[in-house]
Amino acid sequence: MQAALLGRPAALVLVVTLLAGAALGAGLTSLVSEGLSPEPPLRILTSEDVGVNSYVMVEVDDGDNDERQEVTWTMHTFTFSTEGEASGLLTWDFGDGATAVGTVVAHAFETPGRHTITVVDAEDPGRVVSVEVRVELQGDVVSDNMECTCAPTAKSTLVDLQATPEAAFIDVEVRVEHEGSSESCSLRNPLQECHVRVLVERVKEGDVVARDEVFDATFRENELLIPFTIEDIDLEEGESLRLRLETDQLRDWHKPTTTWITSV
Question: Which residue ranges form the domains of the chain, and what is each CATH number?
Answer without folding.
Answer: 43-53+76-134 (2.60.40.10), 143-263 (2.60.120.260)
